[in-house]
Amino acid sequence: MIEFSAAAAAIVAAGRRLEARGLAPATAGNYSARLADGTIAVTVSGAHKGRLARADVMRVSAAGDPLDAGTPSAETLLHCLIYALDPAAGAVLHTHSVAGTVLSRALPDSEEILLEGYELLKIYGTGTHDTVVRLPLVDNSQDMAALAGQLRPLLAAQSPLIPAFYIRGHGLYAWGADLAAAEAVAEGTEFLLACAWEELKLAWTTR
Questions:
Q1: 175 - beta bridge partners?
Q2: Is the pTM of this model over 0.85?
Q3: More exposed terminus of the chain, fewer Cβ within 10 Å: N or C?
Q4: pLDDT of 205
Q5: CA pair distance 105, 188, nearest whole angstrom
Q6: Which pLDDT tens digit goes with each residue over 62-81?
Q7: pLDDT tens for residues 142-168?
């Protein structure tokens, strides 16, 4: 596990890379890393992720209680949920893309986004492209405790656990063993969502 100073530096660097890819508009998104002592380094509320500084990262407990001065991201409880459900999770990234956001809104009655046949599905550890990944899709809410309660059984029921889920009209949560792994899952998933959106548009135009 990583120490706080290294985690803060890595989170700052990840924010700049994700913003450069168009995955962190305005002040959207939040990032975290699980620390060696079991606490969590997380971005503060309201900071632009492409212009993060060391002061924009703070520590919270495993339950999301602040351990430093400042206000953690409003969605910290979702990071805590992921760490609680996946002992292998070492970092969580919450990104926002146009394609993913619009695709999720185009599936108003669905509780999942189906991703099938793409080579990049291997980022989930499938070992093959010849598979279907069902990405959990839940409605957006400003009540993080309620949203975490809705997500918990969906994620706990997965076997194996897919390290990503989507909040409709909002954005992607992706995680991995460390920030580099989480970034690979986030970038790969955003690419897959863009492909799925293009396929859906093609299907509409060829009806």
A1: 92
A2: yes
A3: C
A4: 85
A5: 20
A6: 999 999 999 999 999 999 99
A7: 999 999 999 999 999 999 999 999 999
Phi, psi of 161 (to 5 degrees): -75, 125
Let me know: does 57 contact 30? Beta carbons within 8 Å: no
Q: What is the pLDDT of residue 1?
A: 74
- pLDDT number for residue 203: 86
18, with CB counted inside 10 A (0-12, 13-18, 19+), is buried
Q: Residue 13 corresponds to which tokens in the numbers above?
A: 């660097």
CA-wise closest residue to 96 among 140, 162, 62, 64? 140
Distance CA(30)–CA(72), nearest Å, equals 9
Pair 72, 92: CB distance under 8 Å: no
What is the per-residue pLDDT across 179-199, written as a single tens digit (0 to 9) for each? 999 999 999 999 999 999 999
Q: Which residues pair with 172 in a beta bridge?
A: 95, 166
Cα separations (Å) of 49 from 7, 30, 34, 68? Answer: 15, 8, 19, 19
Q: Number of structural domains, the chain? A: 1
Task: Please give the structure tokens belonging to residue 44.
Answer: 């503060």
Q: Could you tell me the CA-to-CA distances from 21 to 16, 56, 203 in Å, in that order? A: 9, 20, 27
Domain that holds residue 100: 4-205
